[in-house]
UniProtKB/TrEMBL annotation:
PANTHER family: MOLYBDENUM COFACTOR BIOSYNTHESIS PROTEIN B
Pathway the protein acts in: Cofactor biosynthesis; molybdopterin biosynthesis
Function statement: May be involved in the biosynthesis of molybdopterin. Can bind GTP and has low GTPase activity. Can bind MPT, but has no MPT adenylyl transferase activity.
GO biological process, one term: Mo-molybdopterin cofactor biosynthetic process
PROSITE patterns: MOCF_BIOSYNTHESIS_1
UniProt-recorded name of the protein: Molybdenum cofactor biosynthesis protein B
Gene Ontology cellular component terms for the protein in this record: cytosol
Keyword terms of this UniProt record: GTP-binding, Molybdenum cofactor biosynthesis, Nucleotide-binding
Record InterPro entries: MoaB, MoaB/Mog-like_dom_sf, MoaB/Mog_dom, MoaB_proteobac, MoCF_biosynth_CS
MoaB/Mog domain span: 14-158
A single GO molecular function term of this UniProt record: GTP binding
Family according to the record: Belongs to the MoaB/Mog family.
Pfam family, one: MoCF_biosynth
Length: 178
């Protein structure tokens, strides 16, 4: 949790909620990620809510990966074991590199909150086209755990000895889009 005196670099993020039951009015998990990211000084470039469908998820995230204005994609939902949960299957083929430690650390932090039930989380992260993609469970508590325990620091250019900012594409300001 060490920080240096360097300046904060705001990132441009997109948030995707994967759910068959939520809408933007009751999407507390996606809203938590938006609020925390913008509250930390990052800019929201896009927000979508899609059903648990591999191809819709993959199409949306592929467009964001190809968009030079998006540096980080935060995805909530679809990481469990129910029949429709398909976020890992949608995202994994898109990744150039996996961030194995994200899922491991998330489950470690989550274990302190929900015990062995954390085994049923398939949280994951990776890089694609110099865009960080992070997949978290759909619960608001899980998104809070991921943000507070991992993402707030790893998306902060001042975090030392390392953070993800140096690995992301450098872009100009984005327009908010869906």
């Amino acid at each position: 949790m060490a920080h240096s005196a360097s300046e904060f670099t705001p990132l441009q993020l997109a948030v995707l909620t994967v759910s068959d039951t939520r809408n933007l009015d009751n999407d507390t998990s996606g809203q938590l990620l938006v609020d925390n990211a913008t509250g930390a000084g990052h800019q929201l470039c896009g927000r979508q809510l899609l059903p648990d469908d591999i191809y819709q998820i993959r199409a949306c995230v592929s467009a964001w990966i190809a968009d030079p204005a998006v540096q980080v994609v935060l995805i909530t939902g679809g990481t469990g074991f129910t029949g429709r949960d398909s976020t890992p299957e949608a995202i994994t083929p898109l990744l150039d590199k996996t961030v194995d430690g994200f899922g491991e650390l998330f489950r470690h932090l989550s274990w302190q909150e929900i015990g062995t039930s954390t085994l049923q989380s398939r949280a994951l992260a990776g890089l694609a086209n110099r865009t960080l993609i992070v997949c978290m469970p759909g619960s608001t508590g899980a998104c809070r755990t991921a943000w507070e325990g991992i993402l707030a620091e790893q998306l902060d250019s001042r975090t030392r000895p390392c953070n993800f900012v140096q690995h992301l594409s450098a872009v100009a300001a984005c327009e908010t889009r869906g």
